[in-house]
Each structure stands twice: as C-alpha cells, then as structure tokens.
Amino acid sequence: MPPAAESESSVREAESSPSETARGLLELTRPGNVAAAGVLTFTGAFVADGLLAPAAIVAAVAATIFATAAGNAVNDYFDREIDRINRPSRPIPRGAVSERGALWFSVALFAGAVVSAAVLPVTAIAIAVVNLVALLAYTELFKGLPGVGNVVVAYLTGSTFLFGAAAVDGAFETTVLVLFALSAMATFAREVAKDVEDVAGDREEGLRTLPIVVGERRSLTLGVAVLAVAVASSVVPFLVGGFGAAYLALVLPADSVMLWGAARAFSDPSAGQSRLKQGMLLATAAFIAGRITASGGVPA
Ligand SMILES: CC(C)=CCC/C(C)=C/CC/C(C)=C/CC/C(C)=C/COC[C@H](O)COP(=O)(O)O
Ligand SMILES: CC(C)=CCC/C(C)=C/CC/C(C)=C/CC/C(C)=C/COP(=O)(O)OP(=O)(O)O
Ligand SMILES: [Mg+2]
C-alpha cells in the first residue's frame, strides 16, 4: 500500500475505539458461520459415535470453531482491497480493525485450532492440517481460479462432518459421507451465487472467478445443477441412513428454500445467496433432528 494510503488507513485505525475494535474482531470471525461449522462437526461425531467420546467431541468442535474463525479473519485480511469495493462495511475497510491487528488475530485463532486438534486421532489431525493449509492458501492460490475456490470452500464446509467422525475414531460410514456430499454441493452452489454477486470487485482485482470466465448465467446454471443433485440425494439419510421422519419434515422445506434461493440468484444474486444460506441452516437442523430420531437410537 503506498505511504499516503497507509497513513490514511492508520488514521482510520486510530479513530476506532477499543469497543469498536473488539466488535470488529468478533465480526471478522463471522460468528454465525463459526457456530454453524461447530454444529456440523458435532453432527459428524454424533452420527458416527453418538456421545461416547465427549472429550474428543469438545476438542473437535473447538478446533473447528478456531479454524473457521481463523479462515474468515485471514480471508478478510487478504481480501482487504477487494472488500473496499465489494464489502466496504467489513471491519478492515471501514477502519474498525487495522490490517496488522486482523492478521495477528487470525494467527492466534489458527494457533487455537492447532492446539485443539493436536489431541485428536491421527486421521482428524490430518484433516485439520489439510484444512488449515487450504484456509491459508484460499485467497492467494484458489479464489482467483475459475471454480477452484468454490470447490475448496465446498470441501472445507463438508469436511466438518468427516472431521467430527474422525475425532471420535468413527468410521466414515455412509451417512457421514452423504452429509459431507450434501453440504459440499449446496455450499458450491452458494459460492457460485456469491461470486456472481462479487463480479465487480473481483473483476477489478483481476480475479478469474467462474462468472467472470464463463458468464454469470452459465455459472448459476452449473450451481443449480449441482444443487439439484444434492436435493435429490437429500432423501438418502432417510432411506438408508436410518434418519427419522423428523429429518424428512425439516429437510424437504430446506430443499425448497435452497432451490428457491438458487432460482432467485439469477435475478438477484445477493438475495439468492442469502436465501440459500437460510435453507442450508435449516438443513443443518434436519441433520441433528434426523440423528436424534434415528431408528438405531443414539449410542450414549
Ligand atoms: C441438500 C442439502 C440437505 C444440503 C445440506 C446443506 C448444509 C447442511 C450445508 C451446511 C452449511 C453450513 C451451515 C455451513 C457452516 C458455515 C460455513 C463454514 C459456511 C462456509 O461459508 C463460506 C462462505 O463463503 C462465507 O460467506 P458468508 O456466509 O457470506 O459469510
Ligand atoms: C474442520 C476444520 C478443522 C476446519 C473447517 C473450517 C471450515 C468449516 C471452513 C468453512 C469455509 C470457510 C470459513 C472458509 C474461509 C474463507 C472464506 C470466508 C471463503 C469465502 O470468502 P470469499 O470468497 O472471500 O467471499 P466473502 O469474503 O465475500 O464471503
Ligand atoms: Mg472475502
């Protein structure tokens, strides 16, 4: 950043009070996503092994919370210039958190993830290492490659189920793999819609995202196709995974909301991606309800 802009940025930093900085740091983590990711990891452990290994579940959820918060914070650090266009109200562009503060905050969060994951079985540690590297490399290596960044975020989101199951030394049984696939496919669809929403800033920064390379409509059509596969597959946990009727009662509305969001994204990408997220969160509740009411009961 040229000296003049650096001094301007530091002036803005000087204006943010301690409470604004604290609020900004919390906002950097995207606490809603962090909580949701923790729920996904818990669900993976719960599906694989019930509540038989509470210490491992706590460590895995903690590692996921730290890692997701770290990934969001470091993403905003790397995206600080793009976000001056795309998301000027984010904590760094608005001056609530300094660039240096955001970077060191994310380093501390990554350290928390490493310490939490270190006590887990080797398969879980391996997943955590892959994920932490992917989170660090996302913006610099993957985000600007057409579709690759979307696939990485989709994998990271779905991997929470695998991580939870691995933490309790559970096998990657069919249901865990299905939940991985469902959440990864739905996340891919939403990431495409988000890229369509961000075309202006991404193009200015020279990013070659899917909408910029193949066009917005074609990208959204791909996203809808992937989501349709996920929606069609969402009955599998009920049909073969033993998930109870409560799962169906929640996942079918969730499917509808996600399809609605994907369709809406063609005319209003921002509204569409938000609607997609609502459906995904409802689907998360379906996973929990489905496991609680599973035919095999909950091992405890
Ligand atoms: C068909 C079917 C049943 C799909 C399942 C969908 C499902 C359960 C998806 C999981 C979604 C979820 C609750 C993810 C946890 C939060 C998270 C880590 C999301 C990844 O976010 C990346 C995104 O780019 C962040 O952007 P924003 O949300 O705008 O801050
Ligand atoms: C299980 C373990 C150890 C880790 C999983 C960590 C998880 C769940 C990651 C989920 C995905 C995530 C939080 C990615 C961080 C990077 C991120 C926010 C990507 C999307 O960002 P952009 O493409 O820049 O879009 P916006 O910043 O505009 O949202
Ligand atoms: Mg970003």
Automatic annotation (TrEMBL):
The keyword Lipid biosynthesis applies. GO terms for molecular function: geranylgeranylglycerol-phosphate geranylgeranyltransferase activity; magnesium ion binding. Prenyltransferase that catalyzes the transfer of the geranylgeranyl moiety of geranylgeranyl diphosphate (GGPP) to the C2 hydroxyl of (S)-3-O-geranylgeranylglyceryl phosphate (GGGP). This reaction is the second ether-bond-formation step in the biosynthesis of archaeal membrane lipids. This is Digeranylgeranylglyceryl phosphate synthase. It is a multi-pass membrane protein. Its cofactor is Mg(2+). GO terms for cellular component: plasma membrane. InterPro entries: DGGGP_synth, Prenyltransferase_related, UbiA_prenyltransferase, UbiA_sf.
